Batch of 2 targets.
Target 1
Amino acid sequence: MRSYRTGRSVVNFATGLVLQIMTLGIGLVSTPMLLSWLGDDRYGAFRAATDWGNYLNLLELGIGGSLLALLAKAVGIGDRQLIRLTLATAIRTYLNIMAGMILVGVGLGCFITYLVPVKGLLVGELQKGYWLGLLGILLLPLNSFRLLAAASQRSYTDNVFVIFQSLIITSVSLLLARARFGITGQYIAVLLGNIFFQLVMCCDGLRRYPDVFTYLGDRKSQLPIEKQLWQLNWPTLALNFSGQMSLFTDNIIISYSLSPATVVPFFVTQRLTALAQSQIQGIGNATWAALADLYAKGEREKFNARLIELTRLVAVMGLGLMVTIAGYNHYFIKLWVGEDRFGGDGVTILAACNGLFLGLLSLWGWCFSGTGNQPKLVRPATLAAVINFLVSIISTHFFGIIGPLLGTFIAFTTVSLWQLPLLMQEVFGTSLRQLFFAVAQPLAVGLPYGLIVWWIAKSHTPWGWLGLAAEMVLTALIYFAIAWLLVLNEFERKQWSDRLKMLYSILGRYAHYSKL
């Protein structure tokens, strides 16, 4: 069973890695062309308006988080009847929520050109695009099948389909940008990509549970599940709201306080750190279901051992990537979209720090979300979000483009990074000492190494794309080698060596397990 959990986690993470590589490659090619055909004002306005539209997701009322916990429990005990009923209950609930989201979305659309200050032709483009994008809300009930894949430790399915979704969105957005459809064309591309993704995830779910829609009429059997959904959803809603304020207000603040065009250097300067952050978070995304399985079976000692091990892995991987990006991001932006769109070293360093912190907090947060302990996170998450929002606005006024990132950094360091470990000790019995050293040891190696990398990177200019890529890869690999020798002890090195040797056999057996 352990090999089964490990195998799925490995496949989930591997497909996530492929997704990030594909995303990086697509972004390298598409972003300069989009900026050339759209211009900074259109591109920045679309990014800011998209973040405003993301706030409509709060009207999902946290059902996704509570559904994920219930599905993980049903999958863990192997109750297919309960899985069908849970899916049917979620679909019915989403249908009811969808009407409210559309009404609020219409209201937001009436003010979108005031919230994202645009002028001239951009006003009409933004309005048309927003109304088309609003049609995506009709896909909400199908989100249940994506959550089913995640709860079944099949995030690899999600990752594979997201790759195709990204290709569709990028291809259509480039085609329509070149055809001068402006902001409207970008919304059309995203809508088509979302339609594809939700439909294929629905087909994947129906292939495994083909009769799920027949349970929609079984209202009596759904009532207990519906009650559980609404019991767990409010803490999840509070967490979603906190996360929304923390992560999706930056472009809005920059656009409103400075200008839509300023969103472009703010966004592109963080592009590498955002991709690295996604990969770091992918460790938690790939392993949370296995941790939840251990928790559900009462194996607390194994749960905490895996958690400490994963924390160390996130810290090592995060530092290796972020130190490299902090040193070389300036050259990357210069070659990619031009030095005039570089947001500055301050943006790079703060984004790198926040990316590392968010990777750790994401892993720790999954421990609560995957085990139904979301209410424990509400107070610290809300406090961190309020601090983030207020400091971001004030800092943007006084310090300009780094303001939102400074707000995130202060919220993480004053609240989240010490509150979550305390809660983990309280709820799971996690050792604070072990958790501290799992992060402190990679930092003790990474910080001095980062200073050396910074000095080397600033003392010369890499030779084009080939030289930049070679130096960045070498920098990361050297840190990983140092961490292998200095951070991991002999037992851990042997353990990881054995896992790598077992990898091929695990992947070979995976095809058999996936049919069960």
Note: The chain has a mean pLDDT of 85.
Target 2
Amino acid sequence: MTDSVPHRLDLSSKEPDWWRQAVVYQVYPRSFADADGDGLGDLKGVTRRLTHLAALGVDALWLSPFYPSELADGGYDVADHRDVDPRLGTLDDFAAMAAEAHRLGLKVIVDLVPNHTSHQHVWFQEALAAGPGSPARDRYVFRDGLGAHAELPPTDWQSVFGGSAWQRVPDGQWYLHLFAPQQPDLNWANAEIRADFRTTLRFWADRGVDGFRVDVAHALAKDLDVPLRDLGALALGGEAALADFPPGTHPFYDRDEVHEIYRDWRKILDAYHPPRMAVAEAWVPGARRALYARPDELGQAFNFEYLQTGWDADALRQVITESLATARAAGASATWVLSNHDVIRHASRLMLPPGTDDNAWLLSGGHAPAIDEAAGLRRARAATLLMLALPGSSYVYQGEELGLPEVADLPFEVLQDPIWEQTGRVRKGRDGCRVPLPWTTTGPSYGFGAGGAWLPQPESFARYAVAAQDGADGSTLEFYRTALRLRRKLQEGEALTWADGSPPGVLEFARHGGWRCVANLTGTAVPLPPGEVLLSSAPLDDRLLGPDTTVWLG
């Protein structure tokens, strides 16, 4: 592993809590921009396109993993947490990217993957060579199997990606992998693991990183007391099975002990000036999620209930109200997200009828049911303007500012997501939201790079390209730019007031200073409340708020 630099960059700021109301743009580096033409996005490509983010008006970029990886899980199988994958660049390239981001006024957040490593990590290779009972194996979760010849897994625990969460090695022992077999879980009861991640935090903070997104933050602490507990009928439930356990007692998800880790991290993050921020990816119920967002822990946590809520006014009002209360109770600000690298893009997802099996839709190539792209874009723009009006931080995913839909019809033979093979080719996976971005209307990869792209782009991407929308009145790109510029002027305070007497299917609330957001989630036009129109997600007709339309009023 690369050693830490001996000094810290001075990133003093007049706004140490900048993240509480920020708009953060997620960059999936392998699909953002390819500078060297090998078909894979890289850090130099990110650097060259940072002016796009600055012009968009976001406050920060969050980089998904760019570390050395064999890409068994899109970069979340990390072989070295303190280096850059040679295919994506070097540490010098990262330094240049961070410096340019800061010159443009953008903060930099990086993904931290502490639950597991790649099986190519030097530690795991040492564990395989050292054998059972060795200190090297204690860095991971190795156990003897069951059965007369130890031929059965130690427990019935299941991988998130399908199948058993245990993999046997040649000497007969089994190791735990809550995700792909190429991602062995670390043993966070081992002091060496905790010390090494302290070093990793300092390593990147010393290089100008302003914050960390913590992957699978709820899974680090595990109950590994002998005998290990089977889950029985709950084994296939994943995070959903948390409701069947007393809070904090599931064998490997959301255990109370995990918070000791983050309290320790917070001491490190607060030692910098300004303090480094962190946000938890924790797929746990709201009341438990608030624990990760406490000021003495990570400070913020992703709100997946909002992302998972359909296009329904009553359901969204309830989730928004509860999310704000949960964040307030934790002393944190709320977070909002509509798309990311793990879910169907919201321009498509919000058009799926309630009860639709997402995987079945993907397996159909997006044809069962078929989605009207224009209607999906209209609804996506309305959803975005609603989200950006809410108090707290908004996280946007690369390409949503272009209105990109899900690429649901990727041929099976090009799929890269390990979910496809791990489930016996039953679940199609997440590749459809990871297709490389279109920057120009022509070229072998629509300006993504000089050559092709690691996932094929549909011809329709030409009309969504940055070049096609830049400066075009009414384009989704210009809509996002206007919305973010207005948000920066209007956003103040961390509360909202719901309006009384709104028509069914309409959400209306007021923010600090009296400006209002009104969203019509129905299929028919409704009268537009009085007030100056600041921005609308779709054209307005004679003081009527059309279907699937959101407006900001002054």
Note: Residues 313-330 form the longest helix (18 residues).
